[in-house]
Design goal:
heterotrimer, A mainly alpha (174), B mainly alpha (238), C mainly beta (282), A: 174 residues, mainly alpha, C: 282 residues, mainly beta, 27-stranded mixed β-sheet
Chain lengths: 174, 238, 282
């Protein structure tokens, strides 16, 4: 979607236009769902994605327009996913721990590239802290300073988790 | 240099990201010039970083918009809904005698049906039951802000009217509810709807089963109980 | 005082003289339109008191209307956030209506009801009837003497060490009923696992149902019950040697344990049923 069209849709959605918000959803659901699925697993990714867009709708009036909508939405998603993961019920957490990893490794993903599947599986096997930092730094391009703020960790921890993730992925992908 | 091999390795990530100071960078580069293993590790790390770009967007297996639309009070449209023809069901399985009851063949058939029923339900949105081709083709645009429509007409006659009335009450009251709460209510209703569909399909497989008949009725009753509970919650807090 | 509301402001943590309100026999304590974390604890004194966490000041409104002492706003629009401990006479019944409330109840002898939308609810060491309704949040009930009724929609329910009848429903959560000593026990979930451990009394009814999930029932070795087991797509395993009688359609089986004095029904659509033999009186 062209930037100006998206800006118009954001303004319309902020004024209550559901159709405009649906267009924004269609344009961004792939990135948000991918983030949720990689950070939490298939079991809860759809719910989390829906919750992110519901929150975005609630908070649209706080979007200042100084950043791109996608950037704002993505930060909102990271925050929401990290928060929700902390408050997940025992049951959800248990599923993510015991089955989610396996699901992520074995279930078919909607992609064609075999190497990407290997990488998806390898990322899914990472410990959650290392995985989060890898996804945010290497995949999504967040700086360590921002990751530290989002995850309530120090920049040093963010850097060491990134190193750990890369080292583990290197082992798995060799 | 007193750094161990492991200590050099620890610096490789920072080196790739441009995070080393000039002195540290020079020292590491000097080490790399003479250490083949570290050069290989660096190349592997660079490959991992390059491959991170392969992790692109993914689409969920079902359209999530109907659930979002329901929660934010948007009209839920059936446009674009896929209509899936359900296979004709015939014959009933026989349970083996004995203390372990296992019905793999029937289970397999039921599993396929359950999956199809779930997909059909979700294509039109949480809280909504599957629609058939005629419904999709002729369904007018929905005007109400929050709908909790279901196939109440297919409920046992003793429950149909009550279900319709509760769904209508929840639809009227639900607009004032927090969208996340509304989302949970939608999600739970969709779980119950799926259970109803499962039971219905199973009963089609085995029409004489009093257990399945009771189970289906109980699923409808559960939906009624749930709607009553949801309406109470909304009334307290709306 | 009939028809006249008495409004008090409790300033806990500050040197205010009136931080307690007298409670009479027959009064009911009601908490409503408050969000936050609340601990309600029974004590021997005939008064209620609000204590803020860590000495922080908590300002809540207490209104008397007849025999109802209402803590919080009497108007939905006046809903507010507060975290506090509320001490109430053990003998006063308590009613809580919340939206986003984490609630703990302890040491109440005259029953309690909690109606909440989102938040965890924990009840421990109470007597009298207990009723909990919630949409999203875990419910834990422990050491209760009296009937327990829980209606949870989206989360797990754990009920442990109860003497009294128990009725629990959940939409998408597991239900654990451990050491339940009641004449009538009912548990039903749509998408979750069920566990029951407890005796079955003569004349009692015990009914467990899940649509998608396993049911695991543990009863004493000397149990006496007519048992009905129904499953569409699942296995049944029993520690007890049983002779099955199959219903005409094949998905419901029944058998008798001992003299068949109690009625036990386990219904699962898609999941396993396990009937276990406990060690003596569970």
């Amino acid at each position: 979607m062209p930037a100006h069209a998206e800006t118009t849709d954001v303004q319309r959605a902020a004024n209550g236009d559901h159709d405009a918000f649906e267009r924004l959803y269609r344009g961004h659901v792939g990135r948000i769902y991918a983030l949720a699925r990689r950070m939490t697993g298939e079991d809860v990714a759809e719910d989390l994605t829906q919750e992110v867009f519901i929150r975005a709708w609630q908070k649209l009036d706080t979007f200042k327009g100084t950043a791109r909508f996608g950037t704002w939405l993505h930060r909102l998603a990271v925050n929401h996913i990290l928060t929700r993961r902390q408050t997940m019920t025992r049951r959800e957490a248990r599923r993510v721990r015991s089955e989610g990893i396996l699901d992520r490794v074995t279930s078919p993903l909607r992609r064609d590239s075999g190497s990407a599947l290997d990488l998806e599986a390898a990322v899914a096997r990472l410990p959650s802290g290392a995985r989060d930092v890898f996804l945010l730094y290497d995949v999504e391009g967040y700086p360590h300073s921002e990751i530290a703020g989002l995850m309530s960790i120090s920049e040093g921890t963010s850097k060491s988790q990134l190193h750990r993730a890369r080292a583990l992925l290197r082992e798995q992908l060799r | 240099m007193s750094a161990t091999h492991e200590e050099w390795i620890l610096q490789l990530s920072g080196y790739i990201d441009g995070g080393l100071s000039g002195d540290d960078r020079s020292a590491l580069e000097a080490h790399l010039a003479e250490c083949g293993e570290c050069r290989q590790t660096l190349a592997d790390f660079r490959s991992v970083v390059a491959r991170a770009g392969e992790l692109g967007d993914m689409l969920p297996a079902r359209d999530l918009w109907p659930g979002i639309a329901g929660a934010i009070g948007a009209p839920v449209s059936t446009r674009g809904a896929k209509v899936i023809a359900l296979p004709t069901v015939s014959g009933a399985g026989q349970a083996p005698a004995g203390i372990f009851l296992s019905r793999p063949q029937l289970a397999a058939a039921a599993g396929i049906l359950m999956l199809i029923s779930a997909v059909a339900t979700w294509t039109v949105g949480p809280g909504l039951a599957a629609v058939d081709a005629t419904d999709v083709a002729t369904a007018p645009a929905q005007e109400s802000e929050t709908r909790f429509a279901s196939e109440a007409a297919e409920a046992p006659p003793s429950l149909a009217e009550e279900l319709r009335s509760l769904e209508s009450a929840l639809g009227d009251l639900g607009n004032g509810l927090d969208p996340n709460t509304l989302h949970i209510i939608h999600r739970n209703l969709s779980v119950i709807d799926r259970a109803i569909e499962d039971s219905r399909r199973a009963l089609a497989l085995d029409p004489g089963s009093d257990f399945l008949e009771e189970h289906l009725v109980r699923a409808w009753e559960r939906k009624r109980d749930y709607l009553q509970s949801a309406v109470r919650v909304v009334e307290w807090n709306g | 005082m009939s028809g006249l509301a008495l409004a008090l402001v409790l300033l806990s943590g500050l040197a205010q003289p009136d931080t307690a309100v007298a409670v009479g026999r027959g009064d009911q304590v009601v908490v409503q339109h408050i969000s936050g974390e609340i601990l309600v604890r029974g004590w021997e004194r005939a008064e209620l008191e609000v204590v803020g966490d860590d000495g922080e000041a908590v300002e809540v409104r207490v209104t008397r209307a007849g025999n109802r002492l209402v803590i919080g706003s009497d108007d939905r629009r006046g809903r507010r956030n507060a975290d506090f401990t509320l001490y109430v006479p053990r003998w006063a019944p308590v009613e809580i209506v919340g939206l986003e409330l984490d609630v703990r109840l302890e040491g109440l002898d005259a029953g309690a009801s909690v109606q909440n939308v989102e938040g965890d609810i924990s009840v421990r060491g109470t007597a009298g009837s207990l009723a909990v309704t919630t949409v999203d949040g875990e419910v834990t009930v422990e050491s209760v003497r009296g009937a327990v009724r829980v209606d949870a929609q989206a989360d797990d329910v754990v009920v442990r060490d109860v003497i009294g009848d128990v009725r629990v429903t959940s939409g998408t959560g597991d239900i654990d009923l451990i050491q339940i000593d009641g004449d009538h026990v009912f548990a039903e979930t749509i998408d979750g696992e069920l566990t029951f451990v407890g005796p079955l009394h003569a004349g009692g009814t015990y009914e467990f149902s899940t649509h998608s999930g396993d049911a695991d029932v543990t009863v004493p070795p000397e149990v006496s019950a007519e048992v009905s087991v129904s499953t569409f797509d699942g296995d049944f395993a029993s520690d007890f040697p049983v002779t099955l009688r199959r219903s005409s359609t094949g998905q419901r089986f029944s058998f008798t344990l001992g003299g068949g004095a109690a009625s036990l029904s386990i219904r699962v659509f898609d999941g396993e049923i396990r009937l276990r033999q406990g060690r003596g009186r569970p």
